[in-house]
Design brief:
globular; mainly alpha
Length: 92
């Protein structure tokens, strides 16, 4: 169980960091927020993969397709996060 939690955090950090590199502009967030974006992005990527392909993680936890899906999901979550943040800052 501890290994699963550590691997989720590490995959979240990698996916969140790559998402921050791929999305243009400056994101003002901490490393903890980067990990959270990556973890949420992993769930979003897994959900989208299930909707598109109809498969789940029954074949194993660490797969190249799952990591790529995590990065794509993290990019989506980061784009939504930055757009919502821009609207909040403009309304002040």
């Amino acid at each position: 169980m501890l290994g699963l939690i550590v691997s989720i955090i590490i995959i979240g950090l990698i996916a969140g960091a790559l998402a921050r590199l791929l999305v243009p502009g400056k994101q003002h967030m901490s490393i903890l927020m980067t990990v959270v974006i990556g973890i949420v992005g992993s769930f979003v990527g897994g959900f989208l993969g299930y909707l598109i392909f109809g498969k789940d993680a029954g074949d194993g936890f660490l797969q190249p397709a799952g990591i790529i899906g995590s990065i794509i999901g993290a990019v989506i979550v980061l784009l939504v996060w930055t757009r919502v943040g821009e609207r909040r800052s403009v309304r002040r």
